[in-house]
Amino acid sequence: MKLTLKEKINADYMTAFRAKNTVAKNLLSVIKDEIQTTEKNTGVENMSDEDVVKILKKTVKSLKETNASYPSAQTAEELFIAEAYLPTQMSEQEVKVAVDEIITSMGTGLTVKEMGKVMGQFNSKYAGLADGKLVSQAVKDALAENV
User: Fold this and answer.
1) What is the pLDDT of residue 108?
2) SS3 of the chain: helix, strand, coil, percent, to 5
3) Which region, left, alpha or beta, applies to residue 107 given φ > 0 means left and ψ of -120 to 50 means alpha?
4) CATH number of 92-146: 2.70.98.10, 1.10.10.410, 1.10.10.60, 1.10.260.40?
5) Strands (DSSP E) along 30-126, which ranges?
6) Which of 16, 35, 104, 108 has its CB 3.0 to 4.6 Å from that of 25, i.e. a possible disulfide?
7) 87 touches 128 (CB < 8 A)
């Protein structure tokens, strides 16, 4: 049976706790608390992996900002730990191929005005697997070539 992301974080927290790995334990504790708070506020008992990924992305973004302002070995380690839970991101080439497939399936004659439709299709199919800025640029480029 495959563990949910929330269950994996809880299990890894216990492992870090037993191993006295304070950096991992503290980071995973913060992430667990954020998950619990979100569940409580939304009335959801068990968050989906997609929702947990959103929390992880916020955590990673915050850690990157902190590390940029105040670089430290601990923040770098926390960043490494948090990023390990995120799904593998699509490469730029993979994004371009996926965007081209979506545009082809939607039909020819699409213009930049329909960028939102293409983005929506991409996000429903590849949610959380690619950087939004990268996808946006790939869609713009593909639609510009389509004209």
Assistant:
1) 67
2) 75, 0, 25
3) left
4) 1.10.10.410
5) none
6) 16
7) yes
